[in-house]
Structures are given as C-alpha cells and as structure tokens.
Amino acid sequence: MNSLELKTTRLMSRPHCPRCSTLLDAATDTNLQDPRTPKPEDLTICIKCGLLLVFTADMSLRRATIEEIAYLQLQHSKLWQMAEVIARRYTSRVN
C-alpha cells in the first residue's frame, strides 16, 4: 500500500452518531503501516460533529468516556486534533 492510500471499510451495522444522528456507514483507518477494519472498543470520530465515539460489541456507537478521551489526547494527538477541528466547525454552524 502506498503512503497516500487510506483503507476505508463500509460498516454493515450502519450506526448513527448519538449527538447529531449522522449515518456513519464507513470508517477509515489512519494507521498506514497496518490498516484494519474497526472492531469493538476501537475509537472513531463523527465526521460531521467531531464527537469521539467507541464501537460497541454489536458495532453500534457510544460516546467515549472521559478515560478514553484522555487516552486519545495522550496517545493519538493527531486524531485528537482532527476531532477538535471538526467539532469547532460543527459548533460554529449550530450556534
């Protein structure tokens, strides 16, 4: 896989964001060295509102806990920054 390719997976569960109700029917892995499909307990971001989410056992989505958000801030700063940018854009459109 060349360094500019991202692996996008269609989500058969077709979950919705609990904040903005956006249908999230695909996920893109940001790990270019070892891309994979999402699994339960993986973190993701709503592409519309930037809410940090976690895949559940049935591949629906729930809001991330404070502990999961802290982990993301410390261990995956680029993903955290992306979530912040999306959330700011969403908030400015809604308010």
Task: List descriptors.
single chain, 95 residues, alpha+beta, three-stranded antiparallel beta sheet, two-stranded antiparallel ribbon, 2 helices, 5 strands, 19% strand
Give a written overview of the molecule.
With 95 residues, this protein is of the alpha+beta class. The protein has one domain (7-94). Helix content is 29%, strand content 19%. It has 2 helices and 5 strands; from the N terminus they run βββββαα. The protein has helices spanning 66-75, 77-94; strands at residues 7-10, 26-29, 43-45, 52-55, 61-63. It has a 3-stranded antiparallel sheet with strand order 3-4-5, covered by helices on one side. It has a two-stranded antiparallel sheet with strand order 1-2. It is globular and about 35 Å long. The mean pLDDT is 83.
Largest sheet: 3 strands, antiparallel
Percent of residues in β-strands: 15-25%
> What is the ordering of alpha helices and beta strands?
EEEEEHH
The whole-angstrom Rg is 13 Å
Helical fraction? 25-40%
Average pLDDT, to the nearest integer?
Answer: 83
Overall 3D form: globular
Strand order of the largest sheet: 3-4-5
Structural class determined from secondary elements: alpha+beta
- Number of beta-strand segments: 5
The stretches of 5 or more residues where confidence is low (pLDDT under 50) are: none
User: How far apart are the first and last residues' alpha carbons, in Å?
Assistant: 41 Å
Query: What number of domains?
Result: 1
By DSSP (H or I, 4+ residues per run), the number of helices equals 2
